[in-house]
Amino acid sequence: MKYTTPPYLKKGDKVAIVCTARKFAVEEAQPAIELLQSWGLQVVLGTTIGLDNFQLGGTDQERVDDFNVQLNDPTIKAIWCARGGYGTVRIIDAIDFTSFLQHPKWIIGFSDATTLHSHVHNLGVTTLHAIMAFSVPLAKEESKNSLHSALFGESLHYVIDRNTKNRNGQASGQLVGGNLSILYSLLGSASSMDTKGKILFIEDLDEYLYHVDRMMQNLKRNGMLKDLAGLVVGGMTDMHDNSIPFGYNAQEIILDVVKDYDYPVVFNFPAGHGASNWALKMGTIVELKADDNQVTVAFS
User: Which domains does the chain have, with CATH numbers?
Assistant: First the structure.
């Protein structure tokens, strides 16, 4: 499949902020609005911003309608998910991507927005795994700057220190993935993706170690880990254990599951729910290199 990269943004372009999952108040949106405006962008608040349906930012239908409006509006050049939590999977099958496929635009988010990344990857369009509007007040400057660079088509070339548990090597392939729990939940659905020959990125938050093992075993049994070009692991943040220890930490669990495969594995990449969340263009070819000194991830 040929993959399409949406047009990069320029000053004056409009970005819509919408709820696909958890609710987000208008007041909470102010830091994100100010950030986008400082970049010379115009901000459109979707009709879901400020809606309150228990945990969710409006009913399923309201969230579908808002997302479809932004997809169909030719003046909107990017759609920024307000926050994660849970709820995108409830609406994904009702979203109409017809006009989006004719005129792609950036879809931005992480965590629960992994549903969108995975689903849209299957449609052949690049998306942006990055901070959400909710993230802005606590986001590090480097995370915000990487979002700006990705949206405006500037070079993305990341260098980090090696982790002692890394498995060295070089790889080239499309970057795919996102939140491990979401990828696990999509298995068997139309939104689950083919990872063969690709570089898989995973991260997660607030999980029990035995459940990390369960999810990784399921990805393995579904063939998602066998033919990877490489594996990049972001933050495995705030992991939990039982009173009887599982016996392995998250990194050790992942290494054990992929021990029979021969590709580079990189840990502690600064993306996900940790302090740093660098922007990743999902569906883009990346060059991954891990050696005894450092790790580099360069986007084409």
Answer: 14-151 (3.40.50.10740), 157-299 (3.50.30.60)
